[in-house]
Amino acid sequence: MALSFRKLLLGFIATALVACRAAPLTQTEVVDKAAQGLRLIETEPGVEPVWMTHAQKIDLLKANKNFFDVTETYEPPSADSTAKLSLARPRPNPGQAAPVNVTGYAAPSRQAAVNPLISKISLDSMQSFLTNLTSFHNRYFNSTTGVDASLWIKDTLTQITKANPQSSASVSLFPHAAFRQPSIIAKIPGRNPGGPLTILGAHMDSINLDDVEGRAPGADDDGSGSVNLMEAYRVLVSSGFQPETPVEFQWYAGEEEGLLGSQDIAKAYAKRGEKVKAMLMMDMTAFVKPGTKEVISLMPDFTNENLTTFVAQLIDTYSLLDSEINNPCGYACSDHASWDKYGFPTALPFEATYPDNANEIVHTDGDTVDIEGFSWTHTLEYTKIALAFAFELGSA
Ligand SMILES: *[C@@H]1O[C@H](CO)[C@@H](O)[C@H](O)[C@H]1NC(C)=O
Ligand SMILES: *[C@@H]1O[C@H](CO)[C@@H](O)[C@H](O)[C@H]1NC(C)=O
Ligand SMILES: *[C@@H]1O[C@H](CO)[C@@H](O)[C@H](O)[C@H]1NC(C)=O
Ligand SMILES: *[C@@H]1O[C@H](CO)[C@@H](O)[C@H](O)[C@H]1NC(C)=O
């Protein structure tokens, strides 16, 4: 998650930078500045982004300020979109985009098929995936080990797919022009190939904010969500699951650097007119603060209310835990925000009540499975939710 729980050491830098806003940019200016290594950073909805060096970006993260890095996705505001934005502003929840071609979600009804699959979820398998993921020095978005980790995920998913030749699933890289780590998309086609997509996402990258070249195991952030999706994919593909409408599992590169991978993908999908039924983000699912009640906490901002209600029903139906509605996590806190920005309905089940009970050791070399509070049984519940989400929505 693009969150930092450090206190506002450098908050003044954020304020100063945000204060000097640029005028609307032309595409030529964007290309020229990007070629000089500058990055275009948007910290608030509907406000023109500002240019920053990479070091300034890292300072923003250290100052607990989230953002979209829109260098590759920027579009100059048209008169039309300005009008839409000003109309959008008075809404009580400005992040809530209208759902695209969604009329509602039927309550979960496929327990007879889903429960036997849930019983095939293996904690050993999840532990083995996470051991391998955290063994890379870091999974930093523009480093060699970040690329290696991405290729390891792809190879592992490909092996799972090949071991089940009856499955028509396929795994591919989604490369990004501006940095080295590719995202990954594993697709299970639907009987109705043109049907709306069900998307499940997690971010593969990790970061150490003290030294971006340093050790960043990223066990909770977001090794946990990445593994929830890997294991849900493994169980579905090895059971021969063939959905009615397509289901995609996506592992995003560059989340910690301003939601880079997910923006590239969401923009590409919006441009080619993909219909998206639902997008579920899993980002940090393994931490239970000692002494607190274990819950699955649903993010209320930049998510879709109807989809969030549906996920609460999934939790009721398939998980041992109760759900609650979380506190807002703010602008651009994780990759769901990229999908929300392009008008797709999203939901984000989080590990705990934010921010009080969330894991504070993220973005350091200490984000490991060995900390007090890292809970395998807790993160297991999110694999159940991912599996049920893919099955229930893909079957409709
Ligand atoms: C929720 O679904 C209802 C219809 O089922 C629809 O009228 C409403 O616009 C939806 N709201 C959101 C925020 O998607
Ligand atoms: C995962 O790591 C273990 C231990 O280092 C290794 O033996 C195994 O081959 C790795 N698995 C994959 C799929 O790379
Ligand atoms: C990734 O690294 C290359 C140099 O290795 C640099 O030119 C590029 O700007 C970096 N990308 C981002 C998005 O910071
Ligand atoms: C919504 O559905 C209609 C009818 O199927 C289709 O024509 C339209 O392109 C869809 N819109 C989007 C944004 O997918």
Describe this protein's structure.
Its EC number is 3.4.-.-. The structure is a single chain. The longest helix has 20 residues, at 219-238. α6 packs across α8 and α10 (305-318) crosses α12 (376-394). The two termini are 30 Å apart. This protein folds into two domains: 3-75, no CATH class; 111-394, Zn peptidases (Aminopeptidase, 3-Layer(aba) Sandwich). The protein has helices spanning 11-19, 27-35, 54-62, 79-88, 111-118, 123-135, 144-162, 219-238, 260-271, 305-318, 336-341, 376-394, and strands at 39-42, 50-52, 68-69, 170-174, 183-188, 197-203, 247-252, 276-281, 295-298, 322-325, 346-347, 349-350. The protein has 396 residues and is an alpha/beta fold. The protein is globular. Mean pLDDT is 90; it is low at 6-21 and 81-103. The chain binds 2-acetamido-2-deoxy-beta-D-glucopyranose (NAG) (4 copies). One 2-acetamido-2-deoxy-beta-D-glucopyranose (NAG) binds at residues 100-101, 273, 275.
According to DSSP, the number of beta strands is 12
Computed over alpha carbons, the radius of gyration is 20 Å
Q: What's the helix-strand series?
A: HHEEHEHHHHEEEHEHEEHEHEEH
Do you know the CATH architecture of the largest domain? Answer: 3-Layer(aba) Sandwich
The ligands bound in this entry are:
2-acetamido-2-deoxy-beta-D-glucopyranose
Largest beta-sheet characterization: 6 strands, mixed
**Distance between the first and last residues' Cα:** 30 Å
Task: Work out the helix count.
Answer: 12
Shape: globular
Beta-strand residue fraction: 5-15%
Mean pLDDT: 90
- The figure for the number of domains is 2
The secondary-structure class comes to alpha/beta
CATH homologous superfamily designation of the largest domain: Zn peptidases
Low-confidence stretches: 6-21, 81-103
| CATH class wording of the largest domain | Alpha Beta
